[in-house]
Amino acid sequence: MNDVAIIGVGLHPFGRFGAKSAIEMAADAIQLALADSGAQWKDIQFGIGGSYEVDNTDAVTRLVGLTGIPFTNVFNACATSASAIEQTADGIRSGKYDIGIAVGTDKHPRGAFTADPAMLGLPAWYAENGQFVTTQFFGMKISRYIRDHNISVETLAKVAAKNYRNGGLNEKAFRRKPISEDEILGAQMLNYPLTHYMFCAPDEGAAAVIMCRGDIAKRFTSNPVYLRSTAIRTRTYGAYEVHATWAAIDEDVSPTVYASRAAYEQAGIGPEDVNVMQLQDTDAGAEVIHMAENGFCADGDQEKLIAEGATEIGGSMPVNTDGGLIANGEPIGASGIRQVHELVLQLRGQAGDRQVPGKPKVGYAQVYGAPGTAAASILSL
């Protein structure tokens, strides 16, 4: 099986960009990834792309070059980009292709994610009572978690404040103004225990990553980063996740748990080997939960770790060094590749003011998408 190297990453800034289309942003991200990789568009043999708002991400070829490459559109909610990454890597590992690109883009209006539940075969009341990827669901989930594991609301504010600080160091983030813990706690309560500033925002942006066979990576770049694994898993019975038929909550059956275990097994490492991580933080509570679900601590240990600064850029387990979803917002299709973009910069030592000290060698990315699809990826030098 062929090793897969990441040779180039490109990130269009996240935020709001007026009349600029999602496809135009995707084209910019591709051009940035090409410049970063040393490859040219004519070298790319295939593409995988995804978006929530754009049905045919392949239309980006109209802007970057009609070379006739096969291009597959994918969608897996917040796990869309991770799915594109996995499919691109698998195409290379299989020996079918030598070099390909994964791209994600989206352009969301302001407000919560409240798409039509009918497209999922669900009754209208499911969205109306707040159980479709809106603030109510996330509030219910973390409310139970902090009660069961003795975690304070102040810890949620610390998570959000950390991500805003990190976003202030990221020139491509949507929210770049640090917000204090007191201001976060005092903000409008949306759904207890989550206040306004504890949530990410739907926004706009695009990201791209170019991958190739590991044995040819040095033709393009002197500092490749290797994609060691990507694993995607869906719900099992016993997990009440975003929108599905009712089942009792049990943290151990979260799809994130199974995706992370599979990713570690594929990569041949454990969570103790990871130096920098990107965890889905749709809200501050999600980051807390995902610390445990991905094996970085036990349930309930987050309170002490966060208080001690373990998840800060200079801490023992830096999380969301670019500000995560809370600072960057979430254009759904681009979110997972944005995580990989940050990890590649960190492993190369190119993250500037937010660079993790000590030359990190292993990075970890996790996303979670409705209706219960989780993905975990591991990168290393």
UniProtKB/TrEMBL annotation:
<feature type="domain" description="Thiolase C-terminal">
    <location>
        <begin position="253"/>
        <end position="377"/>
    </location>
</feature>
<dbReference type="InterPro" id="IPR020616">
    <property type="entry name" value="Thiolase_N"/>
</dbReference>
<dbReference type="Pfam" id="PF22691">
    <property type="entry name" value="Thiolase_C_1"/>
</dbReference>
<dbReference type="InterPro" id="IPR055140">
    <property type="entry name" value="Thiolase_C_2"/>
</dbReference>
<keyword id="KW-0808">Transferase</keyword>
<protein>
    <submittedName>
        <fullName>Acetyl-CoA acetyltransferase</fullName>
    </submittedName>
</protein>
<dbReference type="InterPro" id="IPR016039">
    <property type="entry name" value="Thiolase-like"/>
</dbReference>
<feature type="domain" description="Thiolase N-terminal">
    <location>
        <begin position="4"/>
        <end position="173"/>
    </location>
</feature>
<dbReference type="InterPro" id="IPR002155">
    <property type="entry name" value="Thiolase"/>
</dbReference>
<dbReference type="Pfam" id="PF00108">
    <property type="entry name" value="Thiolase_N"/>
</dbReference>
<dbReference type="GO" id="GO:0016747">
    <property type="term" value="F:acyltransferase activity, transferring groups other than amino-acyl groups"/>
</dbReference>
